[in-house]
Amino acid sequence: MSSSLYGVAPWLAAAGYCGLFWARHRSDGGAWRLGLHGLMGLTLVLQGSLLLPEWFSDGAIRFGFAPAVSWMLWLAVMLLWIESWFHQIPRPAISIFPLAALAVLLPGWFPGVVLLEHPSLLFRGHILFAMLAYSCFAIASGQALLMLAQEKALHRAKLQEGWWTEMPPLLEMDQTLLRITMVGFGLLTLTLATGMVVNLNSGLDPLRFDHKTLFTVLTWLMVGVFLAGRGRMGWRGRVAARFVLGGFAMLLLAYVGSRFVLEIFITS
Questions:
Q1: Whose CA is closest to 80, among 93, 92, 69, 68?
Q2: Is the pLDDT of residue 189 over 90?
Q3: 106-116 pLDDT, tens digit each
Q4: At how many degrees (to 10) do helices 121-155 and 170-201 cross?
Q5: Cross-strand pairs, 113
Q6: What are the CB-based long-range contacts (under 8 Å, 24+) for 85-89?
Q7: Which residues of 54-74 are buried (b: 16+ CB within 10 A; e: fewer)?
Q8: What is the pTM assigned to this prediction?
Q9: What is the number of other CB atoms lying within 10 angstroms of the CB of residue 35?
Q10: Domain limits of the chain?
Q11: Cα gap 155→261, rounded to integer Å
């Protein structure tokens, strides 16, 4: 990442995320909807100013587990920000803000390696589609965990206690999970399609079955099976949540997990 990561911008963005966590934790839903959208948008702009200019410059792409996590959480918070204009963000969902605060600082300590010198726009788009898919499945996984916890609380008659009172109904959460999963599946399809075109343009086989491709294809198949089962057999609730969590786990293994092992344990 650029030298600006060692300047003030990432620390301001991290402070913004921490402020969002504190403010949403201390305020009720109405105050959140009215007063904090601007702070969330400003924080997203700050982090975006660190990620976008370098990504779309004519130079090399520097990438690794830390930039990947930073991109993933930035896009995940952006999707959450868009969703928040239509639905109140449940209090448990604010746990993403401390994670985003850490993620915006990580590339300063683990900048990654040069992935490719002067890559084509198609290659940059391929990686961007992949990160968007990661972000969608990250949000979907958080939604799935909340659904499982809410269902457990329902069986224990605890939905009238604490922050459970702010949670939307299970049916509404299930529909939101389906929408996010469908978007993630579309982005994953674009990731595979653009990857095949990139390989063909480089004179390679369309699908190179390394670990990244294998886990990405397995994720695509798992989510495709779930969506087909949802349409034909009405899979929802626990079944939907477990499919989404399994798909996200495999997607993490496809790149972020392997880069983490290589950069932290093998090269240290």
A1: 93
A2: yes
A3: 888 887 777 66
A4: 160
A5: 63
A6: 85/37, 87/168, 87/172, 87/176, 88/29, 88/32, 88/33, 88/166, 88/168, 89/24, 89/32
A7: bbeeeeebbbbbbbbbbbbbb
A8: 0.73
A9: 11
A10: 1-119, 120-268
A11: 40
